[in-house]
Amino acid sequence: MNKRSFVLKLGSLTALAGAAALLAACGKKTEEPAAAAASAVAPAASAAAKAEPLKIAFAYVGPVGDGGWTFAHDNARKAVEKEFGDKVQTSFVEKVPEAADAERVFRDMVSQGNKLIFGTTFGYMEPMLKVAADSPDTKFEHATGYKQAANLRSYDSRTYEGAYMAGVIAGKMSKTGTLGVVGSIPIPEVIRNINSFTLGAQSVNPKTVVKVVWVNKWFDPPQETEAAQTLIDGGADVLMQNTDSSAVLQTAEKNGKYAFGWDSDMTAYGPKAHLGSAVINWAPYYIASVREALDGTWAAGPGKHAWWGVKEGAIDMVSIAEAVPADTRAQIDKIKAGLKDGSFAIWKGPIIGQDGKEVVKKGEQADDKFLSGVNFYVKGVDSKVPGGK
After folding, report:
1. From CA 374, how far away is CA 192, in angstroms rounded?
2. Is the domain of 190 the same as that of 217?
3. How far apart are CA 137 and CA 52, in angstroms?
4. I want to staple 241 with a disulfide (CB 3.0 to 4.6 A). Which of 47, 189, 248, 354 is the partner?
5. One domain, residues 98 and 227
6. 147 is a domain residue
């Protein structure tokens, strides 16, 4: 091999080595950005997935401005938003009738991606059960109902505790000894409240008589007004209601009588007539339920029913009027304390039914199963249970 050919071959080898090195370097540069991009996208996607809020929907039987039942539920919805921030996204549909149309509303809520749905009145029970059966990936909560399913549970508030405290105040403040109640729909919940109101009043004045007028609706201000006026014309000087508007309190105000707010603080609707408001605070339950849905501990099925009252912060008697004597106020405080620690029971015998028969024996205390099926009046209620004997 001569010098020239040796130099040429050596140059060729050098060139080939340089080209290989260049190609290797180019390959490395093209791979790094792709890997970097992939590693940058993965955390972003993960963060986006984590940031997806839990969509929650509420179905209301009345308008959010009813000042009572629906207003209380909507205040609790807002409390959920405040508690969980961007972890949740809530919405509601108001004035959903307790009829076939409710099923359509619930199906629409599911189709919109809501994973937790609250139905806030008794009449939604059957429509919710149907939709729940077809939507196994959605969680359902039904207020005041008694049926459950694999993905549907029920909840309620012990409104009878508020009714009893109202009765204690009414028994003290009544001059005639005749009280009136405007009833909505004659289901055990409402009958139980009427009886508890009566028991509270009788603890102060055993001769108390309670009259009842039914309107067969939850929210109907004109009918509630008419019913309240009928009770006043019949001699009642203190009224309670188990309806959703402020009409009963306003009617009492116009007639110079006393009344109570129900479900929410209604002081502003009739400040002269208002003796106090038996309120429901749904926020503790809603917050607990949403937290369970977020952390994966939410569970449903047969027997999954929550019934919260004064003990859990769900029921209270608020804004008691200055006209109520100090000793009665002190009695209300004592009742609240007893309900909280379990030392006081409203439905403790002896309790006598309207027919004169003992319904709870002396020394015994009615359990939740008994209370859930109350379909009779206690002694002192001057009315007949609709559809009863």
Report:
1. 6
2. yes
3. 16
4. 248
5. no
6. yes
Range of the domain at 153: 51-158+283-310
178: closest CA among 129, 221, 236, 227? Answer: 236
**Helices (H) and strands (E) in the chain — how many of each?**
11, 14
Question: Tokens 């409104």 sit at which residue?
Answer: 159
Distances (CA, A) of 294 to 55, 148, 250: 11, 21, 42
Q: Looking at residue 244, which CATH number applies to its domain?
A: 3.40.50.2300
Residues 6+ apart with CB under 8 A from 132: 138, 140, 149, 150, 151, 152
Tell me, yes or no, whether 319 and 180 share the same domain: yes
One domain, residues 252 and 174? yes
Please indicate, yes or no, if residue 64 is contained in any of the structural domains.
Answer: yes
**Whole-number pLDDT of residue 209:** 98
Helix-helix angle 326-341:159-173, to 10 degrees: 160
Same domain? For 90 and 199 the reply is no
In a domain, 367, yes or no: yes
Q: Is 319 exposed, middle or buried (0-12, 13-18, 19+ CB in 10 A)?
A: middle
* The predicted structure's pLDDT at residue 30: 37
What stretches of 203-246 show up as alpha helix (H) in DSSP? 221-233
Residues 211, 356: one domain? Answer: yes
Give the model's pLDDT for residue 46. Answer: 53
Question: pTM of this prediction?
Answer: 0.86
Phi/psi for 174 (5° steps) reads: -70, 135
Rounded-to-5 percentages of helix, strand, coil across the chain? 45, 20, 35
- 3-state DSSP call for residue 105? helix
The CA distance from 37 to 41, in Å, is 6
Structure tokens that stand for 246 in this block: 């402020």
* Low-confidence stretches of the chain (pLDDT beneath 70): 1-50, 388-389
Q: What is the pLDDT of residue 242?
A: 98
Q: Which residues pair with 210 in a beta bridge?
A: 179, 381
**What pLDDT sits at residue 43?**
53
